[in-house]
Amino acid sequence: MMRIAILLAILALSSVSSAQEVDPDMTAGTELEPGVQHMLFSFPDFLAQPDGMALDRAGNVYVSNPNFNNPEYPGLLIKITPDYEWSVFYATPAHPETRKAGPMGITFGTDGNLYIADNQYYVNKDYASRILRLNMENGQPTGVDVLVTGLKHPNAVRWHDGALYVTDTKWEVEDSTNTSGIWRFPEAELQDSIHVASTMDAEYLIDTLHAIRQPNGMAFGADGMDFDSQGNMFVGMFSDGRVFKYAMNLDGTVQSREVFLEYGTIPSCDGIFIDRNTDNLYIADSQANALRLVEADGTLHTLAENGNTTGADGKMDQPCEPLLVGNKLFIANFDSPNENFVNERYDDIHNMTILQVPQEFLGAIEGEGGR
Ligand SMILES: [Ca+2]
Ligand SMILES: [Ca+2]
Ligand SMILES: [Ca+2]
């Protein structure tokens, strides 16, 4: 850990531009007005792009940082304590060929280890992406195992019923097909490293989805994914904003897929978090700088929405993932826009937003037990 700290200090000193850091405008004990956005953190340049989040059993939140926007820095994981103190937790090991790591989605398994989507798409589109397991003992990292290789654009990861599910936003063999996929890896088979075939009917691929190509040419598919209290899986399409609801068979195969949010309901769908006390979906609408809440019956609410900002005001700067921590939402901001996004440009403030969820959307608070 000390070596990482020294490396980061050297890199920060040698960096040409440096981040503007803005202090949080609240602490862990502050009462927040429901629905009002606040600055949770702004980070130094070596944490330019907070993305995936996971909560451990002790109430610590982990955040991935692929640093695609600031590629001189490694892909990092940070840890946020229940008192909202953050520190660098782990530098994700670089891919042996690309020399980069791109940690995006992260989630805890029932074994207490952290599963990481190492997304190599932005440096290598030739199926170089991986799933890693960060082994943990007593809250400390003890090493990494490479569990899956051959993925293209792994994004969200979730455990459900003895298997690891992964969305692959650009699982396509032909660039013209706008396709994406959903993987399911049973826990027992992950003990030996799996290399998936580069085909549209590869083993472990349980569904493929076609994104609707947008006027700007973008066709990013399956992105956010989570399970409700009944074991239904929800998957959102990044560029076209549709959300699909899946019922699963006991063996993990797909029983049915229905459209949960129709095309045109919300502009885009990045990270999805489902509160299993209420089965409300929290959706990061990346393109619109908005945070949506969708009830189990499909009723749509907008919890927060704002115009272009650097994030200096604490507000959303291209939100990519929500996580409900107690009764507050932590929101990571990716700040890496396409040309039709409300977010106009990547800037030198790298912030996370916090928002008190209005009481009407909350159920009784129960321990989540780590996710
Ligand atoms: Ca995502
Ligand atoms: Ca920003
Ligand atoms: Ca921005």
Automatic annotation (TrEMBL):
Organism: Neolewinella xylanilytica
Keywords (A to Z) from UniProt: Signal
Leader sequence segment: 1-19
InterPro entries, A to Z: 6-blade_b-propeller_TolB-like, SMP-30/CGR1_Lactonase
Name of the protein: SMP-30/gluconolaconase/LRE-like protein
